[in-house]
Amino acid sequence: MNPFLVMSLLFGLVFGQTASLCAPSEYTIHVEKRECAYCLAINTTICAGFCMTRDSNGKKLLLKSALSQNVCTYKEMLYQTVLIPGCPHHTIPYYSYPVAVSCKCGKCNTDYSDCVHEKVRANYCTKPQKLCNM
Question: The pTM is what?
Answer without folding.
Answer: 0.64
